[in-house]
Amino acid sequence: MASSGSVGAKAFKFPRQLPFDAPDYLLHLLAAISRYRDSALDQALSPIGLTVGRYRALNAIYIFQPCPMGELAEFIGVDRTSMTRTVDQLVGAALVERHTPSLDRRQVVLTATDAGKDLTLRARPIVFELNRRVLEGVSDTAQTAVIRVEQRMFANLALEPRAIERMLGFRRPSADG
Fold it and tell me: pTM for the whole thing?
């Protein structure tokens, strides 16, 4: 993957003063980074037939399978309607299978097919390379500091402690939590 994005960053002279108040500017930057990264990732993943949304869903299903649909939407931070549309596409492409447990017919449980697992493993190096490019010039210490700040920001927004545990640990909450 070309690293054309980092050329501009090396040439850019970062201003000493922020253009507006830190809280507003920080959240503006987070939104812009997310939007630009998603756009670059969509472009990078398109040769293997994935979009950012499909990759996120497929990767989470692969990690957490069997993965209930509701948990999947929470794990990747997408509303259930959008998640259903994405899962329909993954099922249609034979990358994911959808099951309904006999004990609870309201549940929808997802698993990655072999083709879905293979595609996830092909996509990860593409994602990881772009992540490295985005973080070029940012020390491990600075990355960890940003992670801690963003964890605090998420915890400030979360409505329930279990949501914090799910999102920040990117895992299912413990049974005793």
Answer: 0.81
The residues spanned by each domain of the chain are 20-136, 139-171
Q: Which residues contact 161 (CB under 8 A, 6 or more apart)?
A: 177
Q: How far is CA 79 from the centre of its chain?
A: 14
**Sheet of strand 96-99: strand arrangement:** 67-68, 109-112, 96-99
Is 50 exceeded by the pLDDT of residue 133? yes
Kindly indicate the confidence band of residue 94, based on its pLDDT and cuts at 50, 70 and 90: very high
Residues 161 and 141: their CA atoms lie apart, in Å, by 27
**Per the structure block, which two tokens stand in for 131?**
């992540």
Q: Is CATH 1.10.10.10 what the domain over 20-136 is classified as, yes or no? A: yes
Contact predicate 54/89, CB 8 Å: yes
Q: CA-to-CA distance for 115 and 94, rounded, in angstroms?
A: 7
> Which strand (E) or helix (H) includes residue 109?
strand 109-112
Query: Is the pLDDT at 6 greater than 60, yes or no?
Result: no
Any idea which residue has 């070309």 for tokens? Answer: 2
Confidence band of 9 (pLDDT split at 50, 70, 90): low
